[in-house]
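Students often ask why we bother encoding 3D structure as a string. The short answer is that it lets us treat folding as translation between two languages. Here is a chain of 71 residues written in the first language.
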Amino acid sequence: MAGITLIQAEAKLAHYLSIEDSLGANAEVTIDGTTYKRHNLKDISAMVTLWNERVIKLTPGSTRVRQVIPL
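And here it is in the second language, the structure alphabet:
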């Protein structure tokens, strides 16, 4: 298995963002056969953070370069 691609990570992020948005307006929402309830909002927000971090890591040019200058 080659690992997670940027496209897959963006899709997961979009999925959890849509759940988070829907739960903001409703007590529960069913997406792709799975029912999420408002009390799951903390878990959904954690998944948004996780997938956002993965998207950032997989996005070209998003890595930090630090320069070390020996004294």
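Translate back mentally: Residues 6-25 form the longest helix (20 residues). Keep this in mind for the problem set.
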